[in-house]
Amino acid sequence: MDPEIEWINPSDAVEPGTRRGREGFEVAQSSIGRAYSSIGFEIERQVEIGDTVVLIVEMLYQGRSSGIEVPQPLGLAFTIDEGKVVRFEWSRRPEELLDRILNASG
Q1: Counting Cβ atoms within 10 Å, is residue 60 exposed (0-12), middle (13-18) or buried (19+)?
Q2: Model-level pTM?
Q3: Segment 56-81, tens digit of pLDDT
Q4: 3-state SS string over the chain?
Q5: Torsions phi, psi of 14, nearest 5?
Q6: ∠ at Cα 59 (43, 87), nearest 5°?
Q7: What is the pLDDT of residues 5-64, one digit of tens each?
Q8: Which is nearest to 95 in space by CA: 76, 70, 79?
């Protein structure tokens, strides 16, 4: 990952907003680890749009305190520059994320 990576949480996330740099990325990842005891992903679709790869996935997570397993559709967008991830964005509305990136690409 690029040292200046951006991690973008959607407005409906528990902690919305953008984190920058590796430290910000690690903070975002650690908050996920505190909330869930396990997380798995099943890739349903992959779309390459210029320098961005969008994955439509089903995430299956287990709550750390509840133990309940919950499926959640997600869109994950990774922007690559010179072989490094420079931007990561996710959404609980995967098709909206994909459409927005497609429309932004022209």
Answers
A1: middle
A2: 0.85
A3: 999 988 877 887 888 999 999 999 99
A4: CCCCCEEEECCCCCCCEEEEHHHHHHHHHHHHHHHEEEEEEEEEEEEEECCEEEEEEEEEEEECCCCCEEEEEEEEEEEEECCEEEEEEEECCHHHHHHHHHHHCC
A5: -60, -40
A6: 75
A7: 999 999 988 788 999 998 887 877 776 666 677 788 999 999 999 999 999 999 988 877
A8: 76
Count CA within 13 A, CB hemisphere, residue 90: 18
The per-residue pLDDT for 79 is 97
Q: Contact 4/86 with Cβ under 8 angstroms?
A: yes
